[in-house]
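dumping this here before i forget
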Amino acid sequence: MLVFRGLSQTAPSSTVLTIGNFDGVHLGHRALLARLKAAAAAEGLPPTVLTFEPHPREFFAPESAPTRLTTLREKLELLADDGVALTYVCPFNARFAALSAGEFIERVLVDTLRVRHLIIGDDFRFGAKRSGDFTLLQEAGTRLGFRVEAMDSVLLDGTRASSSAVRAALAEGRLEDATRLLGRPYSIDGRVVHGDRIGRQLGFATANIRIKHERPPLLGVFAVEVHGIDGRTLPGVANLGFRPSANRVVRPLLEVHLFDFAADIYGAHLNVRFLHKLRDEMKFPDFDALKAQIAADADAARTYFKL
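structure:
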């Protein structure tokens, strides 16, 4: 997948385009991307995505913006996995936010992205004060030479597949529901770094994974699968949080104990998939109590995996 940062580069050809934040790339997004790929294949044009960094709500109201499901890197990897050929990452700043709906259509969609066919979600709004809508896009398309279609929301057992629904499921520990909404287990990427070796002292060596999420959408202890080591899928138990009982940290830390594994993986970039929540983080009175609970967590995760 070819990625352009900003809107200074004109698309190399006409495009079949969709637009959105795509946080989490859930089943609703993936249905939209499937339609995008089909339309692009029919027209012999690249399936193209316009997305934003930061999320518009982070720009307008950072104190109340939702927790991100995916970092930009994770989102781009997921878009590439779903067959997107070209992605524009548009900086969402004061200048962009001030564009009128008409300016957005002519400068961004037509002049830069060379849109031939636009596919949007049924709730898409754009332009300053969210003044642009589907009707305005249709009128502009007739005048400027591109087609527009809208996709209905995807419902799963009556629940709309949305980033908000995924966030709620993760925050409440309903990982199976989150998996159903995403079409895959929720995961976080990160690189293995050196830690303080507390895990070894407790009898459970851990891979300390540096993550980019400042406010991860889930916290606690989980049964996980880890990908990124020699093409293998490795089961384990993970703690994601602030370690209230052992050298508390100010940024969330992801620590993973891999079962029956002892290789040196410092520097490896791993993908950790969260399958089942075991418990919330808690503070223990001493190391012996903490060690006993970690052993119980490992046993519970092994039971989950039927190991």
